[in-house]
Amino acid sequence: MIAATGIYLFAFFDTSVTGAHASLERLTREQWWFGGVMRSLHRYASDAFAAVALLHLLRELLAGHFRGFRWFSWATGVALLWFIYASGIVGYWLVWDRVGQFSATATAEWFDAFGLGTGPVVRNFLSAADVSDRLFSLFVFLHIGVPLALLAAMWIHIQRIAHTDTNPPQRLGWAVFGTLVAMSIARPALSDAPAAYGTLPQSLPFDWFYLFAHPLMYASSPLALWWIAGAATLALLALPLLARRKRSAAVVDLARCTGCGHCARDCPYLAISLVPRSDGRAFLKQAVVRAEQCAACGICAGSCPTAAPIARGEVLPGIDLPGDPLQAIKARIDRAASRSVVFRCRHERWPMPQDDACVITLECTGQLPPSFVDHALRRGAAGVTVSGCRPGACEYRLGGAWTEARIAGTREPHLNTRVPRERVRLHWWPARNNSTGLQAAALVLAAALLTWLSFDPPYRPLGAGEALVRVIVVHAGERLQPCRKLSAEELALRAPNMRAPEVCERGRHPLPLQVEFGGRLLVDELLEPAGVARDGAAQLYRRFVVPAGRHALRVRVSEAPRPGARAWERAEALELAPGRVLTIDFRPEQGGILFL
Ligand code: HEM
Ligand code: SF4
Ligand code: SF4
User: Fold this and answer.
1) Is the pLDDT at 216 greater than 80, yes or no?
2) 307 touches ligand 2 (CB under 6 Å)
3) CA of residue 286 to ligand 2 center, whole Å
4) Does 268 lie in the same domain as 236?
5) Measured between alpha carbons, how far is 34 from 447 in angstroms, rounded to an integer?
6) What is the ipTM of this complex?
7) Contact 184, 45 (CB under 8 A)
8) What is the mean pLDDT of residues 180-203?
9) Atom 8 in ligand 3: residue holding the nearest Cα
């Protein structure tokens, strides 16, 4: 839905700084019945995407699905979060309204926490002259490129998962689509006023799903936000290290394997491959387990046709769990005599049956070969119950679904058709929730939350009666030693490609900088030259929230902390209206200290 609506919007989008906002306004207002709905769908579907990804993370986290063989899905999932947020945030910049401008500037300030060698990134957003069409093309490129990378990362994320559920059940899919359309009509996504330079609005309609990190940064600091984001990512990535005792992977018994492929088809984690036969027997293939991908769920053992129990003999399946072999399960059935037998998955939460039933615990209901049900009944069991996590909520994803299909006779190996079905009961946990009313209520609640958090509560970048002062300096200080011109003889001694007319010792002076605002020193620092040899430009970017009103401002920069060094000074009394953003930018090539 996001891709389809995005392509439609792009067809009408003017990719220039001056045209972008107007083109979206035209589409939203003049073609509100379709273009406007498409725009709102794009917005709400993206919000829902972020929300659902976070819920998915929460669910896997609570289920402990980050350990062992799942580390791959978990780690790639963590990476997906970064792609989701990068895609969504850049999308806001394309509107180039005050929200997009605020978000782009905040992101630039976030990167400026590190003082990148190229000068503060925020310089790209100071005035209309700074935001060029070229920069805007970069935004467009990012908003197409990052989602494509996200798509590739999603593909990688499910590489170790078989029969992936990538589409919702049809009824749910249509219900979600209908709800998103209803939300788009009820509260269409609109642009804020066009980007304006030198001011910050009193309040911004704010999409908290994607933009929450900006207020977090201003409430702390850009560096603190890097720490929070980095620490959260590392903590999530480190979770798989909290390992449980590793259970042994499934093992193939080549003497029994016929290469039928049932196990490879049923394995939920693509841990089994069929490879050409290596033992010279008259079968084409044999099964091979990749131990590092194996969940030790036993579903393969339950699917192997050679796992049939023989009355007095040993069960010798082609594939089995060494720590929980089928032979041990058969021995317990044999001891049950005439009691009813309950095959129970270790992960379900139903209370244990209190009657005298013989309860046999399995790693997953999928571990149970259907022939074992037949065997239990033939040994005289009063009845058989298979009890476990229901299809869709199975600890090993597919065990419940395969068991249901094997017992119903729709998947191989299936339960013998002669077995009286009334003596076999399936008992799933948690019970299926078929209440349409409850599902509809959940959808309405989710829709209300999405529509609200996508705009409200508004964010106030500055308090009432406040203004912002930003200071930017990027300049190379005076050299410690003056450069020396080379003589003609010295030049002649050098290789032709090394004949620079001057030699300069490396190393520069730090830059003294003072900013005095309303009688208070905002900055009084020596800016150190960058680089290992300390001969790069010194750099500073700071922002200060100040009271609005009339203030005396004095700025002084010099190229070295010594009398007589080249220096610039500017002093003025300035009227700062509430919401005004005053940028003090030192640009000697444009006349020195600029007040923008
Ligand atoms: C773009 C966002 C994401 C998409 C589209 C996505 C999609 C999927 C899909 C389709 C599956 C297979 C589900 C199944 O058929 O059983 C899956 C499994 C999984 N995902 Fe994600 N996922 C996303 C983000 C995440 C995140 C953020 C995490 C956690 C950090 C995560 C962790 C996992 C884990 C651990 C599994 C394996 C579950 C299992 O083994 O039973 N995913 N994901
Ligand atoms: S299901 Fe059994 S017999 Fe068939 S390939 Fe797998 S291990 Fe071999
Ligand atoms: S035990 Fe489970 S994960 Fe391992 S090979 Fe068998 S079916 Fe696949």
Assistant:
1) yes
2) no
3) 7
4) no
5) 20
6) 0.92
7) no
8) 95
9) 267
